[in-house]
Structure formats: C-alpha cells, structure tokens
Specification:
With 77 residues, the protein is an all-alpha fold. It has one domain. It has four helices and no strands. It is globular and about 45 Å long.
Amino acid sequence: MPRLECGRNGGAPYKMTAAKLRLAMAAMGQPETNVGRLCRELGITRQTLYRHVAPDGSLRTDGEKLLASQKNQIHLK
C-alpha cells in the first residue's frame, strides 16, 4: 500500500495565501483601512480575514499556521 503524504488531500484550494496574509497584516495595521474594500481586493471574506489577522494587524493562530506551512513547503522542495 503506498504511503500518503501528511496533510490535506483534495478539496478546494485555500483562499488565503501567504502573500495575501502579509498584505492583510500591513493594511490592518493602518487605521484608515476599509475592511470591506480590502476583502474585495484580496478575494476573501471578512470571516477569512479575521480568522487569520486581528484588527490591529497582528497574526492569529490560523495565520501563524499558514505561514509555518508555507515555510515547510519551501524546505521540502
């Protein structure tokens, strides 16, 4: 029986990427940021934004996981 790789297998791709996350963090740190406009520009929902980034621009748990998984993928290549 072949060994499966660990992690997610199949399904729709995540909307939030590491690049979008970094942009969102920078934008959320600015008081004049319009959250609705930011979400439209990034192609994500408010729920996805706030799941990854706090209102002050700091990372939340899911954002940290996303960046950590991105770093792990780079090291595996």
